[in-house]
Amino acid sequence: MACLFWFARTNNDINVLESSHLFSNLASGIALPAHYVIQGKEYDMGYYLADGIYPKWSTIVQTIRDPHSQQKKYFAMKQESCRKDVERAFEFCNHALQLLRDPRFWRKEVLHDIMTTCIILHNMIIEDERDLNAPIQDAVEAPTPTIEMVIDENLRFEQFLARHKKIKDKNVHFELRNALIEHLWEQRKIFEN
Asked: Its domain of life (predicted)?
C-alpha cells in the first residue's frame, strides 16, 4: 500500500505513477516478493487495480471500458468495486473522520500514518459488512525468496533493465487480465452452486 503526497493540485494519476516507489523498488529488485498462480500460470510481481488513464503494464490491471461478454462484464464490475473501496476509504477519512481537512498542517509521516490507518479501518468495516457465509479460501504461503548479491555493476544494470521491461510488458498485462477474467468467472460459478 502506498500513500503519496504532493503540493495541492499537482497529484494526478500520471504523477502518482511516475513518483511511486512501488514500481521503482520493483525495477530495482528491492520490492517485497509476490508469488501467485492464476489459471495455472505463475506470476512473480503484484498487480494494482487502476482506471483507464494508466498505461497497460504487467503490474496494472485496468477495467474493461465496454465489456461485451458476461465474463468481461462480471470482471469489470468486480474490478471497479474493489477500486472504489480505496476511493471510499479516502471519502471516509475526509467526511466521517475529517482527518484531512487541513493536510498542510500535518507532517508528511503523520499524514501517511493517518491514511494507512483510515484504509485499514475502512477495510475492517467492509469485512465486517461482507457476507459471513462466503466461502473461505486457504492462503498458500509463497516460498522464501533467495537473494542474490550482484557485484558486477553491468550485470546489475542489465537485471534492472530486464525488470523494468517486464513491468511495462503490455502482453503480460493482457495475459494477466484475461486470466483474472477466467478466474473470477470460475469462482462465481463455484459460489453460485
From this structure: Eukaryota
C-alpha grid cell for residue 137? 479460501
Q: How far is the C-alpha of 17 from the C-alpha of 34, rounded, in Å?
A: 19
**What are phi and psi for residue 42, nearest 5 degrees?**
-85, 140
> Dihedral angle at the C-alpha atoms of 73, 76, 82, 83, nearest 10 degrees?
-150
> If we measure between CA atoms, which residue out of 181, 167, 155, 179 comes closest to residue 63?
181
Residue ranges per structural domain of the chain = 33-127+170-193
Q: Which triple of cell numbers denotes residue 149? A: 548479491
Full 3-state SS string of 40-79: CEEECCCCEEECCCCCCCCCEEECCCCCCCHHHHHHHHHH
C-alpha closest to that of 166 among 49, 51, 28: 28
Q: For residue range 73-111, what is the model confidence (pLDDT) as tens digits?
A: 999 999 988 888 777 777 776 776 666 666 677 777 777
Q: How do residues 41-76 score in pLDDT, each as one tens digit? A: 999 898 888 888 888 999 999 999 899 999 999 999
118 with 173: CB under 8 angstroms?
A: no
Which residue has cell 457465509?
A: 133
* Predicted pLDDT of residue 7: 46
Q: Look at residue 16 in the predicted model and tell me its pLDDT.
A: 64
